[in-house]
Design goal:
By secondary structure, this protein is an alpha/beta fold. The chain has five helices and five strands. It has a single domain, classed as DsrEFH-like (Hypothetical Protein Ychn, Chain: A), CATH 3.40.1260. Strands 4-3-2-1-5 form a five-stranded parallel sheet, with helices on both faces. Strand 1, helix 1 and strand 2 form a beta-alpha-beta unit. This is tRNA 2-thiouridine synthesizing protein D.
Length: 130
């Protein structure tokens, strides 16, 4: 089965990002499944902030997703509109908006909703975590 994941729940106020990662790890461990891509939308875009620092005794879900995606060559898409609305920019958007700093974490990329549509069309199933 070829999956794509849509995550909308906040990484700090819900378990959505954690549950989605558990699902993704189980899916690829099976060997018969693939993950086309991960799309973070609404409050879930907060996961991609390089400035968020969880306590040392807690899981750093941002880095966990980044490592998982790198290991399995899975893109991590962050909705650009939702991210900009919440003050998250990559270097290109910072320059475009004439802002001195950017804070999008490594391994994440800003994309429009067209990327979510593409994931939906290219996958057998899209799983939503909110």
């Amino acid at each position: 089965m070829n999956y794509s994941l849509l995550i909308t729940g906040s990484p700090t106020a819900s378990r959505a990002c954690y549950s989605a990662l558990d699902f993704a790890e189980a899916a690829v461990a099976n060997g018969d499944n693939t993950i086309q891509g991960i799309f973070f939308y609404e409050e879930a875009v907060a996961i991609a902030s390089s400035l968020a620092m969880p306590p040392r005794d807690e899981c750093n879900i941002r880095d966990e997703w980044s490592a998982f995606a790198k290991q399995h060559n899975i893109p991590l898409y962050v909705c650009i509109a939702a991210a900009l609305r919440r003050g998250q920019l990559n270097e290109a958007e910072a320059k475009r908006h004439e802002v001195e700093h950017f804070n999008l974490a490594d391994g994440y990329q800003l994309e429009g909703l067209g990327s979510l549509v593409s994931l939906t069309l290219e996958s057998d199933r899209i799983m939503r975590f909110k």
